């Protein structure tokens, strides 16, 4: 019967997996856009002192994404278990052994870092100058990262490009989180929430929501393909020929590879510049050197890791950096949280449950400042200021951009299996949520401190941090960056500083200064401020590591090796990659030294460029067999080209915004054009060749992933497990050496089998 055939469910592995993805994405979209759409109505309700609408967007939605990925993994692994006919799914023995070794190493490393912070706290208590403590923090962290890079050096291409494809999911999740939580997240996120209030939550909803797309739509299939870079996948997927007017037939996969590399360069270099900029902000503040000099100084730690060990060194460094940055971000928030007493909580260290009373106090202080004449009008912190379409457009672009960033996607090339890649995405989001759940509390605590203890105070009693950050141009009083009370009095054109009360419009704080300044704003010990500087440095450098590696690998592997000299030896290719690392790093530092824009804006541009250039080609390449090379090429040119044109025109060309849509959401124009161009041109031209269709089918077929192991393969794994069981945790003097030696022993054990 026709109806029976039409309604019969496809119970194949691909059919069941596809239905699961569709169901997950429908739920994801409903929550991601439904709850923000109701924010004005739900803000009238309270939950633990929180306006419910704000709390839903700041805390509930990101947590829901994590729960959704756990459900997805559980159901998908059940589908795969059905394909195994009851046989257990076996992970690589080397990965399990490495996981145990790394767990012990990084627990010891964390204990060592906490001890170091306590020691610096002791030095502060006995009178060591603040600047000396800041310098010790910066030198210690840069030195540790450089040591790990030296200890993890490698000359093997597999280690350099994809860390040997042996990184356990939990540690790949930590490395991805560090790679992801850049200076934009660490330095800029809380500052953006401080400045924008509710509207800033678009960044949290968008960036965390993107990991649902990564896990369900893209990452497992890229891992199954097994490439080194994103452009390599696009070139392999979009093979085809075109007949030129003279009759000559040419292969166009090289054009697709070249365009994908250009997209990678455009979004990654923009993102890299933002990280180097934030490094300069932190180093200049805590060492006291000129911003331009600080920018170039911060590259030392990056280059040591990337130059010597490639992805292998970067992975181990990023795990260490995650430990530092998350301690540095949460400790000040916990310290401020324990001082809150809002009627619901008292001395509660769980910061994301405590700041509801702080939000209410901010709302009351806003009204009070207007009544006292300290502000003519205050935009409510908890209410949307943007149009709803602007909020949703930015959220959408950040979600899709997250699933398109090459330096994030390449992290999932390093896992042992497809299942590990999926689990790694979930671990990544879990580790990221630790920071993103804290950022709204961080911003609220800082907001109330400024509103209460700075606004309305005489100029003569302004706190020292106003002048400290005025020296590096991150704060201003009455329109001028001041470094003393006298300068503040002059700037505000007052005869004395004792009579004039500082008004809200008089004080400007850069969004990029908020996190590193908050410990001083809250009156916490300077050691906490130094800890925050170390965390911000870790966040910026970890992302810079990944971006530099993505750019240099694409240029050396996809351009030089694949398009220029396909006979180049591994040694020559690695040399080219390392030279490019240095050149790109210097270019990024030079660009950052010119201070082109605030950190979060630069990062948002990168997301739009990645979304419009990569997402249509990746999604259609995996999920639509009919997509061909001609469609991909035209789609990238049209989608990415339109986004770039809109960005340049509105930022530098004086263009009016189209429909009022901000340029940080530029992909809202380029992305649909990229999809439409790809689909239309693919339908108007010949279908992909048979070998490409076979490759697409293999990406969707569980049977070819290597996870249905033969008896011989199971025996090999058993032998590996026996060999690796003899590995002892190395006794070495520092974490970097321990990590490198552990990996070396695993590699040796594998090679011996």
TrEMBL record:
Q: Locate the Sodium symporter small subunit domain: which residues?
A: 12-80
A GO CC term attached to the entry:
plasma membrane
Primary location group: membrane
Q: Which GO terms describe its molecular function?
A: transmembrane transporter activity
Task: Provide the topology term for how it sits in the membrane.
Answer: Multi-pass membrane protein
- Entry keyword set: Membrane, Transmembrane, Transmembrane helix, Transport
Pfam family for this entry, one:
DUF4212
Which stretches are transmembrane? Answer: 20-40, 52-75, 96-120, 132-151, 171-195, 201-222, 255-274, 286-307, 319-339, 391-413, 425-445, 575-593, 599-624, 631-652, 664-686
Q: Gene3D superfamilies per the record?
A: Sodium/glucose cotransporter (1.20.1730.10)
Entry superkingdom = Eukaryota
Where is this protein found?
Answer: Membrane
Task: Name the protein family.
Answer: Belongs to the sodium:solute symporter (SSF) (TC 2.A.21) family.
Question: Would you tell me the protein name for this molecule?
Answer: Sodium symporter small subunit domain-containing protein
Whose protein is this, by species?
A: Polarella glacialis (Dinoflagellate)
- State the organism's lineage: Eukaryota, Sar, Alveolata, Dinophyceae, Suessiales
């Amino acid at each position: 019967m026709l109806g029976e055939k039409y309604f019969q469910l496809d119970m194949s592995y691909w059919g069941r997996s596809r239905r699961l993805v569709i169901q997950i994405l429908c739920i994801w979209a409903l929550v991601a856009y439904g709850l923000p759409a109701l924010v004005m109505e739900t803000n009238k309700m309270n939950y633990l002192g929180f306006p419910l609408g704000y709390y839903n967007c700041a805390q509930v939605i990101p947590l829901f994404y994590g729960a959704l990925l756990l459900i997805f993994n559980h159901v998908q692994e059940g589908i795969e278990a059905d394909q195994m006919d009851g046989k257990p799914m076996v992970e690589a023995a080397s990965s399990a052994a490495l996981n145990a070794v790394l767990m012990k190493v990084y627990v010891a490393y964390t204990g060592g870092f906490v001890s170091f912070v306590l020691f610096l706290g002791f030095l502060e208590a006995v009178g060591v100058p603040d600047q000396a403590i800041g310098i010790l923090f910066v030198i210690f962290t840069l030195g540790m990262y450089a040591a790990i890079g030296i200890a993890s050096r490698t000359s093997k291409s597999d280690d350099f490009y994809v860390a040997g494809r042996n990184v356990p999911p939990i540690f790949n999740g930590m490395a991805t989180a560090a790679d992801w939580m850049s200076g934009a997240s660490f330095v800029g996120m809380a500052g953006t929430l401080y400045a924008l209030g509710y509207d800033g939550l678009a960044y949290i909803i968008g960036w965390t929501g993107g990991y649902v797309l990564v896990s369900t739509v893209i990452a497992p299939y890229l891992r199954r393909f097994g490439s080194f870079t994103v452009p390599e996948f696009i070139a392999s997927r979009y093979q085809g020929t075109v007949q030129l007017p003279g009759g000559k037939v040419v292969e166009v996969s090289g054009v697709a590879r070249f365009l994908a590399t250009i997209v990678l360069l455009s979004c990654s270099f923009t993102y890299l510049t933002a990280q180097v900029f934030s490094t300069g902000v932190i180093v200049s503040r805590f060492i006291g050197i000129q911003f331009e000099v600080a920018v170039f100084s911060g590259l030392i730690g990056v280059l040591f890791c990337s130059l010597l060990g490639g992805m292998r060194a970067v992975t181990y460094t990023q795990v260490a950096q995650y430990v530092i940055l998350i301690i540095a971000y949460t400790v000040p928030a916990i310290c401020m949280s324990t001082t809150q007493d809002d009627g619901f909580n008292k001395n509660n260290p769980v910061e994301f449950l405590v700041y509801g009373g702080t939000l209410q106090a901010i709302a009351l202080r806003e009204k009070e400042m207007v009544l006292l004449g300290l502000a003519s009008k205050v935009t409510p912190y908890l209410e949307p200021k943007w149009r709803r379409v602007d909020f949703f457009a930015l959220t959408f672009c950040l979600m899709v951009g997250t699933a398109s960033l090459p330096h994030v996607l390449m992290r999932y090339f390093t896992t042992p299996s497809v299942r590990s890649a999926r689990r790694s995405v979930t671990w990544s989001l879990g580790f990221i949520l630790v920071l993103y759940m804290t950022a709204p509390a961080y911003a609220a605590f800082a907001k109330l401190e400024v509103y209460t203890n700075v606004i309305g105070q005489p100029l003569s009693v302004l706190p020292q941090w106003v002048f400290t950050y005025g020296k590096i141009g991150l704060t201003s009083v009455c329109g001028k960056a001041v470094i003393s009370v006298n300068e503040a009095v002059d700037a505000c054109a007052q005869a004395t500083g004792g009579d004039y009360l500082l008004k809200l419009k008089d004080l400007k704080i850069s969004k990029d200064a908020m996190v590193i300044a908050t410990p001083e704003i809250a009156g916490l010990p300077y050691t906490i401020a130094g800890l925050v500087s170390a965390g911000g440095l870790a966040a910026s450098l970890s992302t810079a590591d990944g971006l530099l590696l993505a750019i240099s690998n694409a240029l050396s592997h996809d351009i030089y090796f694949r398009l220029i000299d396909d006979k180049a030896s591994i040694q020559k290719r690695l040399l080219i990659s390392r030279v490019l690392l240095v050149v790109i790093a210097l270019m990024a530092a030079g660009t950052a030294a010119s201070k082109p824009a605030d950190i979060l804006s630069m990062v948002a541009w990168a997301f739009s460029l990645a979304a419009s250039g990569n997402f249509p080609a990746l999604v259609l390449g995996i999920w639509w067999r009919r997509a061909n090379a001609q469609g991909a090429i035209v789609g990238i040119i049209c989608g990415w080209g339109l986004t770039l044109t809109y960005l340049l025109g509105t930022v530098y060309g004086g263009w009016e915004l189209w429909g009022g849509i901000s340029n940080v959401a530029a992909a809202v124009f380029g992305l649909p054009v990229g999809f439409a161009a790809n689909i239309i041109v693919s339908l108007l031209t010949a279908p992909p060749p048979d070998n490409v269709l076979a490759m697409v089918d293999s990406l969707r077929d569980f049977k070819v992933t290597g996870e249905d192991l033969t008896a011989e393969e199971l025996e090999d794994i058993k032998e590996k497990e026996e060999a690796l069981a003899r590995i002892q945790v190395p006794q070495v003097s520092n974490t970097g050496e321990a990590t490198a030696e552990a990996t070396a022993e695993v590699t040796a054990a594998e090679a011996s089998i």
